[in-house]
Amino acid sequence: MPCDLFGFCKYETNKLVRIQSVRLGSLKWALNTAILVVICIMMLWNRNYQQFDLVVSSVTAKVKGVAQTNLPGVGNVVWDVVDYSGPSQDKNSFFVVTNVIVTQSQRQGKCPEVPSKGRLCRTDKDCEKGHWDQQSHGIQTGSCVKFDVLKKTCEVSAWCPVEAKTKPPRPALLAAAENFTVLIKNNIRFPAFNYIRRNILPEMNDAYLRSCQRTGDPLCPIFRLGDIVREAGEKFSDIAIEGGVIGIQIKWDCNLDRLSRRCLPRYSFRRLDEKESNKTLYPGLNFRYAKYNIVNGVEERTLYKAFGIRFDVMVFGHAGKFSFIQLIIYIGSTLSYYALTTVLIDWLIGTSCYSAEVGQNYSEKKVEAVQDKQKCILCVSYVDENNIRLVKRSQKKSLQDVKPMLVQPREENTGHLRAVLSLLQPDANADPKAEQLLAPKPDPNSSPRRPAW
Ligand SMILES: Nc1ncnc2c1ncn2[C@@H]1O[C@H](COP(=O)(O)OP(=O)(O)OP(=O)(O)O)[C@@H](O)[C@H]1O
Predict the structure, then answer these.
(1) Ligand 1 centroid vs 182 CA: distance in angstroms?
(2) Distance CA 105, CA 160 (A)
(3) Domain end call among 298, 317, 336
(4) 181 belongs to an annotated ligand binding site
(5) One domain for residues 300 and 191
(6) Closest CA to ligand 1's atom 7
(7) What is the pLDDT of residues 340-390, one digit of tens each?
(8) N or C: which end of the chain has fewer CB within 10 A?
C-alpha cells in the first residue's frame, strides 16, 4: 500500500533485547572501557575541560655587538649597534646590516651616469636634456661625456660621483654580525584571566642573563644571531651577502590551573623570504641611507646601500583554565561514542563472526512488527467513493466498532466489504473476526448459533 511505501503508517521505536551471554557481556564492557579511556586521554591531552583565551603581546629587541670591517676606499671601520641597526626599527622587528656598498664624498654636481643605469652615447645628440627614469641617479644635462677610457655616457645632474657598484661584495663585509646578540623582551597578557607574564622569567637574575646561551638553555631571552639563522636552516655567511628575512616565533601554551600551572615561551626560527638567491628574481633585502657632513663649506654625504637581515618577532599562543561548563559540554559531546559498542556488537552478531543460529535468533527478537488499533487516516483516500463514506465514519474505531455501521453482508456486496475491511486492517483476511464478517449470512433454520456480531 502507498502509505506503507512512504512509511506514513509506521512508527519505529527501540526494543530492549537482553542477551544472556558472558562473551557478549565481557565484550560490551571491554569496548565501553576502551572508549572511556580514549575519551579521557583526549580530554587530558587537548585540555577539553578548560576555557581558553588568546595572547595579547608586545615585543622590544636590542642588538649588541661590534665588528671591524675593511671598507673599499675607506679603510678599517668599527661598526657598533648604531651603525648596523639601520636608521629605523619597526614594531616587532629589528634589522642588522650584514653587507654594504659605500659611495663616499658625494656632492651636488654634474657627472657621467653609470652605463648600467643610463644610456651609452657618442655625441650630445644621443642625450636628451631633462630626461630621467626610475633607474637614473640624476637628470640628464644633454651632454655626452666620458665615463671611462672605453665608454661615454650621458651626463647627469646628481649627487656625484654616482653609485657605481651594483653587486654586493662577496663575502659579506659584516659577516662578523653572526656573533652579535639580541635581547628580546616579550610581555604577554591573557585578558580573560587577567594574567600577565614576560619571557624574562622571575627566577632569572642579572648573572644568569649575562651568561645564558640558547644551546644550553632554551628559555634564555638573549640569542646569538648566528644561532637564530642556523636554527632557521640557513648559513649566516650566505644570507649575509644579499640579506633576507628571518622569523622568530615565540609560542606561549599556558596552563593556568593551580595544580598544573605552566606558562613558558617556546622559541622557533624560520626563514620567511625566498631562499635560493641564484634562482630567485630580486632576492634579499636592502635599502639606502646617507650620512651628511660639511667639508670646506660644501655639503657632502656618504651613501650606504645596506644589505641585511630583518628579524620579525611573531608571538602567538593561548592559555587555558578549568571551566565546569566546558567539562560538561565535552562530556555531553562524547556520550554518543558509546553507541559504537552497540553498533560493533550488533555487527559481530550479524556476521559470520558469531554462530548463524544465535544471529538469526537475535534478529528475530530485536525487530518486531506490531499493529496499531487506531487506523491511519491517510488510508481512506484510496478507496472508491462508496467505501470512502463508510471508512470515514469509522476511521478512528476498531474492527468491532465498525461492525454496526456495515451493511449486512450479502453475496453481491461481499467484495465491497472485503475492500473496506482490508483497508481498516491490512491483515483482515487473516483475522478470524474479519473472516466472520465476510462469511455468508447463516440460515437461522439450519444453524442454531448466529455470528457473534
Ligand atoms: N643584545 C644583548 N646582548 C646581551 N646583553 C644585552 C643585550 N641587550 C641588552 N643587554 C643587557 O641586558 C640588560 C638589560 O638591557 P636593557 O636594555 O633593559 O638595559 P640598559 O641598561 O638600557 O642596557 P644598555 O646596556 O644597552 O645600556 C643590560 O645589562 C644590557 O646590557
Answers:
(1) 9
(2) 8
(3) 317
(4) yes
(5) yes
(6) 183
(7) 998 998 888 877 566 666 677 777 777 777 766 554 443 333 344 454 444
(8) C
Residue 270 shares a structural domain with residue 415: no
pTM attached to this predicted model = 0.71
The protein residue whose alpha carbon is closest to atom 10 in ligand 1 is 183
If asked whether residues 309 and 354 sit together in one domain, one would say no
Return d(Cα 80, Cα 71) in angstroms, integer. Answer: 15
Query: pLDDT tens for residues 273-319?
Result: 876 656 677 788 899 999 999 999 999 999 999 999 999 999 999 99
Instruction: Classify residue 87: in a domain, yes or no.
Output: yes
Q: What is the ipTM of this complex?
A: 0.95
Atom of ligand 1 nearest to the CA of 63: 1
Residue 63 CA to ligand 1 center (angstroms) comes to 9
Backbone angles phi, psi at 247, to 5 degrees: -95, 130
411 pLDDT above the threshold of 60: no
Atom of ligand 1 nearest to the CA of 185: 18
Ligand 1 center from residue 200 Cα (angstroms) = 12
Query: Does 405 lie in the same domain as 297?
Result: no
334 is in an annotated binding site: no
How many whole angstroms from 64 Cα to the centroid of ligand 1? Answer: 8
Residue 275 annotated as part of some ligand binding site: no
What residue's CA is closest to ligand 1, atom 16?
62
Residue with cell 583554565: 321
Block residue for cell numbers 671611462? 148
CA gyration radius, the chain? 46
What's the grid cell of residue 406? 456495515
Same domain for 175 and 277, yes or no, is yes
Helix axis angle for 22-46 and 339-350, nearest 10°, is 140
Residue 396 in marked binding region? no
Residue 261 structural domain: 56-113+162-317
Q: Residue 146: inside a domain, yes or no?
A: no
Query: Strand 244-255 relative to strand 298-322: parallel, antiparallel, unpaired?
Result: parallel
If you measure from the C-alpha of residue 222 to the centroid of ligand 1, how many angstroms do you get, rounded to a whole number?
10
Residue 444 forms part of a structural domain: no
Answer with the one of 366, 400, 430 that is the final residue of a domain. Answer: 366
Residues 332, 337, 339, CA angle at the centre, nearest 5°?
115
Which of 62, 185, 209, 211 best tests ligand 1's pocket when mutated (most atoms within 8 Å of CB)? 62
The total of structural domains in the chain comes to: 3
